[in-house]
Amino acid sequence: MSLFPNPLHYSESNCFYASWRCPSNIAIVKYWGKFGLQLPRNPSLSLTLDKAHTDTTVKVMPRQMTDSSVTVIVDGLKNENFKPKIMAFLKHIEAYLPWTASYDYEIHTHNTFPHGAGIASSASAFGALSLCLLSVEEQMLDNAYAEDEFLKKASFLARIGSGSASRSVYPIAAAWGKLEQLNASDEYAIPCGDRLHKIFHTFHDDILIVSKNEKSVSSTAGHQLMEGNPFASLRYEQAEQRMHDLIHCLALGDIEAFGTLCEEEALSLHALMMLSKPSYLLMEPNSIAIIQKIRNFRAETKLPVYFTLDAGPNIHLLYPDNIASKVREWVDHDLVHFCKDQFYLKDKVGQGPQIIPQI
Ligand code: PMV
User: Fold this and answer.
1) What is the CATH number of the domain that holds 47?
2) How many CB atoms lie within 10 A of CB 221?
3) Whole-prediction pTM value?
4) In total, how many domains does the chain have?
5) Do 52 and 85 fall into the same domain?
6) Is 34 in the pocket of ligand 1 (CB under 6 A)?
């Protein structure tokens, strides 16, 4: 692929290697509810992150036994926990990358954000793995994809591992899920960084870690509960309308409209969880305390600081670069006490995935 010169990829004795870094992303309009093979009930749009990312090297070797062998190594240590999900993913993608059925895999991976920090890593992990597999395919078939086709197929594959991962392969921002206005698809995400006013290209996302605990209800279970949620169809209409509104304010650089929508979306997501049958709650007392602090700070200072949440208790603090020093001062003074171990990750909008040296 011409965009990435001198890829540090090589093959030896019928083995192929590829290494990619892929960022995580934060959804502004949230994907919540799915059907079929990880297809979304509603369109979503996210900002691509920078610091929160996964580095992955994949070694692909000709299969030794009838059954596939997959070894997963996280930070240099063999890890059995991720194996079932990766094996299921490899099985599913055989239909789209038929060569994968004839190989064994050694997957080395490292997250730049601390383990168990409560930051979801499936988006960056499946993004990185999909990019590596496509790079291997290019070497194996000695056939380079055009850049946009490469990323589209990476997004398609990543989606099968984790829906939100489909959006992680693009710089700045990406949209996933059918939406006429964007000519977008349920099967893969599309880049939309060039639709954003430049103020959003340098936006900050400080991730305030309220809890590092495993979620009591997984995202997979949460998506499934949408099937019986009495508000589901209203929600899907709302998400579509908010996509239109979001695209509009992102293009205009209207931070206030963006921030208002962002907070409404986060609260809608958590309201849907509370209204599920059975009901559940992922916010914690400190999540609420931080939300109140943000609202008070905004009212007092008139500074454009907004929040969003993923499916968990942690707060993403979103603000433009020109107020970064004032906001950081306030976070360090007023908000870190609500964070687990006083930890928060200073992240911002990022430039998307890149090829890296073997890890
Ligand atoms: O990709 P999943 O299955 O982990 O679902 C992610 C859902 C949210 O993070 C809550 C929203 C989103 O669009 O990323």
Assistant:
1) 3.30.230.10
2) 13
3) 0.95
4) 2
5) yes
6) no
